[in-house]
Amino acid sequence: MKFSIKLVLSTMIVLALALGFSGFYFVNYVFETSLDREVGQALDESSILSFAFETAALNVPLKYSVLPDSVVEEIASKLEMEGQGGGRLLRIADEEKNILYTSSGFTSDEGLLPQTDLRTKSYRVIRAQGGFYVHTCVAINTLNRMLYLETMKDVTEVFTERALGFSLYRKVTVVILLTGIVIMLFIASLLTKPIRLLTKATRKMAAGDYTYRARQVSRDELGQLTGDFNRMANALEENICKLEEEIEAREEFMGAFAHELKTPLTAIIGYADMLRSHKLDEEKSIMSANYIYTEGKRLEAMSFRLLDIIVAKQDEARLLDVPVGELFAYLREMFAEKKEMDIRFVYEEAVVRMEANLIKTVLVNLIDNACKASEYSGVSPEPGGKAADQKGADMAGVPEASVSGGSTGVVEVTGERVDGGYRIAVRDYGIGIPEEEQIKIVKAFYMVDKSRARSKNGAGLGLALCAEILKIHHSGLQIESKEGEGSCFSFVLAL
Predict the structure, then answer these.
(1) How many CB atoms lie within 10 A of CB 258?
(2) Strands (E), 328-448
């Protein structure tokens, strides 16, 4: 059953009970008030009749010392005739409860006689002859006789009015309930509209439409619930999009991983089969073994890089305060033997929070990539030219850049204070990266030029590892590159 129908039914039940009890109380209160008024009038009339009877008995001639029965009947007859217009019925009994006079139509029994004496008036409401009457009884002591005067007053109209009142109230109650049902259906429809909209939204989302949102139509608690539902739906949609992106990235990763494994394994298996099944001369045997060794080393490097990425994603770096000079001294020593490249180190002294070994890994990868990119560039800035001198002008008091003149490529590694931290950048003047490729190069196994990367035993994992290491340093890799002009990879660490 719908919530709106339950709301209407429960409201109508409460309303019906309230109208029923209140109507019964109201009609019954009016009836009891009217009946009490009629009973009071009947008792007053009984007192008046007893007084009139006593007065009439006193006017009897003195020859009677005791009021005779004939006189009693005569007086009762006159009293009945005088009150015929009011529907008065009389009955008179003597001391022995014997009936002396009875009006035509007086059908009540003698139940009140034993309850009545000179000090007590008694009455009751009875049903007789298809109507309702107030039956009264009073004792009269006159001329040495004890008589009992009974009256019957018709109060059928009071009971008829009560019946009409209940009938009318039932009709009014039915009309009110029917009208209330129509009004409550309208109100329930308005009140439950946010619920219907939420239900529609949940069904849409359950069917896969995660962009659908419930319309907020009120500012009350249900309106707040709608707003909270929409915010929850936004968060759910974002999480689902992230999950879909992760699944897609994982599928791409697995495909690229399988492809990267296939190439060296095919070469290893092919040359190993050649060595196993053919008698080769020494030169071909050495060449085959060299291919197997080279591809094996490539697989080994790729496995180590993958392991480093997994560890970097799961590990929490222990950041320490490290002087920048120690980091640049390590890099200068690391690339001292790379005579074919002009690698320039320019930095500003500072103390930076980092995990030194991880940041060294990042910089070694970036410098190594810069050297590979520079080898394919036909243009090289003059040693000591604008690329080197500008930094020297900006950073007074820093160590001189190490310059190898006559090189085929220049790589600049710089460090400087900036707002919010310390920026380390690696710049080359090599072939550059197309703009549409710059977002993708931090993905595992992604290579802009696969043939060139494989010729250098690359697998597309270096930048992915750098990105993961910088994440645990609360930083990120910033890429500036123009095709044919070179690239600059930089990141900012906390001072």
Answers:
(1) 10
(2) 342-347, 351-354, 410-418, 421-428
Rounded to 10 deg, the angle between the 156-191 and 193-206 helix axes is 40
Name which of 99, 47, 57, 108 is nearest 78 in CA terms: 57
Q: Which two tokens stand for residue 141?
A: 């002591």
Angle at 237 between CA 476 and CA 195, to 5 degrees: 150
* Dist CA 246 CA 252 (whole Å): 10
pLDDT (tens digit per residue) in 22-75: 989 999 999 999 999 999 998 998 889 888 888 888 877 655 667 788 888 888
CA distance 150 to 134: 10
Q: How far apart are the first and last CA of the chain?
A: 65
Pairing of strands 131-142, 478-482: unpaired
Average pLDDT, the chain: 79
Task: Note the pLDDT tens digit of each residue in 193-220.
Answer: 888 888 888 888 888 888 888 888 878 8
The 10s digit of each residue's pLDDT in 348-378 is: 999 999 888 778 878 888 888 888 887 755 4
What are the start-end ranges of the E strands in 387-463?
410-418, 421-428
Which tokens hold the place of 30?
């009016």
Q: Using CA atoms, how far apart are residues 284 and 318, in angstroms rounded to an integer?
A: 50
Nearest to 191 by CA among 15, 9, 7, 1: 7
